[in-house]
Every structure is written in C-alpha cells, then in structure tokens.
Specification:
The protein is α/β, with parallel strands linked by helices and 342 residues long. Helices cover 42% and strands 15% of the residues.
C-alpha cells in the first residue's frame, strides 16, 4: 500500500501497481497530489510557509508502512511538450545527458579521441612554425580534446526524418516519444533504481493514438524491469484500452479518495442494484465504467449508460440527484429508477 501526503496528516492511499489512474471530479485533490510528488522529488527542506501546509515533518510518503526517502526513488514528470523535450536534449541531468556520459568509458570512443589529439598535436606544430616567424619567445598551444568539452562545444542534436533534418527544439512531443522510452529504459537498466513517472493530462499535448502507444511502451518497460511505476492524472479518462487489472488500480477522487474493488466483485454489486435483471460481461462493464468515470457524482450526459451511472452514483453515496432520460430503449423499470430520488 502506498500513502502520499497531500497536506498535513492528510493522505491518499492506494495499492502499488505498475500503473495507477487518478480520475474523478476533484481536480484540486489531483493538483495537491502532483504538487506533493513534485515537491518531494526536489529533496529540499521545506520553507516556513510550506511547513504550514505539510507540517514540520515535511511531506511523508510510505510504501507498505515504511517511510520513503528521496534517494530511494527517482521521480519523472511528463505534463507538456517541454517535459518530453528537455529529457531528450543534451542539458545537465537530462536522460540524454546521463546516457551520453556513459560513453566516457567506451574504449572505441577513447581511442578515437586519442587519434584526434594526435592530429591536434600535428596542427599545433604547423601553427608554431608560423608563430616562429614573428617571435622566438611566443608559441601556440592547443588544449587536448576530451569527450566532455567535445559535447559542450561541438554537440548539436537534431531530428531527422525521411525528408528533412530539424533542430531538436522544433519538434513536438508526439515525435519524440520513442526516444523518450528508449532513454527511460536505458536509465533504469543503468541505475537500477525505482522510478515513479507521473503523466499529467496527456490528452492536452499528445494525440490519442500516441497516448495509447506510449502507455503500452511504459507498461512493457515496467514488465521487463520491475522498476517503473506510472501514475496517470487526467481531468478526463484517457482513451485507451483498459485492462481488468487497471480497475482496482484506479483511484476515484471526489470529496475524498475511493479505491475500487476487483472488477468481478464490482460487477456483482452492479447487477444486484440494477433495477431490472442485467448481466454485464466484465469487458462490457469495464468499457462502460471508464466512459462514465468523469461523471461520477453528477447526473452526467444523456447516454445509453444513464441507468448504470445512477447505480454507480448510489454506490459512491450520491443518491439525491435529478436524472433525465430521452432514450427510447429504456424499460419502464429503468425509467422509474432514474426518476426515483429515494
């Protein structure tokens, strides 16, 4: 069980999983949760003002009752185009920067730099011959090459497709997802440390097909390494193919947070409370639930799942809502159920 403090002695609790979805109408609670993760990730002491929010003990995170220290987990956040780009760019502490630093230990790279320095020495001798024509005392000296100063002064990253080569900063996040996944897996294999990756409102900067592809890629990395946990925070449920194991790992944030049971148990509860005999397949109920999850706590919009929404709302304690219907296929019992506020 994971516990993350959102404010002083107020925690969100959920079961540990390869990916966890945070949905529901309480956008403030989502922001607080992301804020806590970001602030904890800095590893810095809280200011006096922050201590008013979080308490003197700082932000507390627990896994199975054991308090997490900053060094135990690495945190990544994807929330816009820039957060993708900055990990691909060669800037200090980016995934690309750390990945290329490993080349310092590469034997072939070291041999090539030695050759460059040999050629540089030859160039220095040629320049000195010219300098000697004007002075017996002055000489020219070139600093030796090393990989660090080559990266600093000569490296320029670009993006090339079948038609053009572009500066990396011109690229949209949708075009850099493959590179991000490759760097992420390389980082995990190199550092062998748990990573918590927070994906925040991906629908605002990634197209739907790319969200699906990216989520699949993250899931594969998590399965291969066992060292990646993904937290998805979204104002609206993202359009992906949800799996049965996603259901109990979806946290519904309303006035308070709610954990979901196993899908089979939820299915039995739905069928027990449905106003007419109703049998859902688990796949059918899974799809319908994520279609409705953003409407929990409201009467939603007119849809074929209106009756199901009222049943779900009842489970979450929202019994006193006015529902309307314009769906001809509803039975009389279903219509009566929607109109009943008792």
């Amino acid at each position: 069980m994971i516990k993350i403090e959102t404010e002083n002695n107020q925690f969100i609790e959920f079961e540990e999983a390869s990916r966890t979805f945070f949905y529901g109408s309480n956008q403030k609670l989502k922001r607080q949760l992301v804020r806590s993760l970001k602030r904890f990730a800095t590893g810095k002491s809280l200011s006096e003002l922050e201590e008013i929010v979080y308490g003197e003990n700082g932000i507390e995170i627990y896994i199975d009752g054991k308090q997490v220290k900053k060094g135990n987990i690495d945190f990544l956040f994807i929330q816009d185009n820039q957060s993708i780009y900055q990990e691909i760019d060669f800037i200090k502490k980016s995934m690309m920067f750390d990945y290329l630093q490993e080349l310092k230990e590469d034997i072939l790279i070291s041999e090539q730099i030695e050759k460059l320095n040999d050629e540089l020495l030859k160039l220095e001798l040629l320049v000195n011959k010219s300098v000697e024509r004007i002075s017996d005392n002055v000489s020219s000296n070139f600093s030796s090459f090393n990989l660090e100063n080559i990266f600093k002064n000569q490296l320029f990253l670009s993006f090339e497709d079948s038609e053009h080569e572009y500066p990396l900063e011109m690229m949209d996040a949708n075009e850099l997802l493959d590179e991000y996944l490759n760097l992420l897996e390389a980082k995990i294999k190199r550092e062998k440390q748990m990573i918590w990756l927070s994906l925040v409102n991906p629908e605002s900067f990634l197209i739907t097909d790319n969200i699906r592809w990216f989520m699949d890629g993250l899931e594969e990395i998590s399965e291969r390494t066992g060292l990646l946990k993904v937290f998805i925070f979204a104002n609206q449920a993202i359009d992906i193919e949800y799996k049965e194991y996603d259901f109990p790992h979806t946290v519904i944030l309303l006035e308070q947070s709610h954990l979901l049971p196993e899908l089979s148990d939820f299915k039995r509860t739905i069928e027990n409370y449905y106003p007419i005999p109703k049998e859902y397949s688990e796949l059918e109920l899974l799809g319908a639930f994520y279609d409705l999850v953003d409407d929990i706590g409201t009467t939603g919009k007119i849809s074929e799942h209106m009756v199901l929404l009222k049943v779900i709302n009842g489970i979450f304690g929202f019994d006193d809502l006015n529902y309307f219907y314009k769906i001809k296929e509803l039975s009389e019992a279903e219509k009566s159920f929607l109109l009943d506020r008792s």
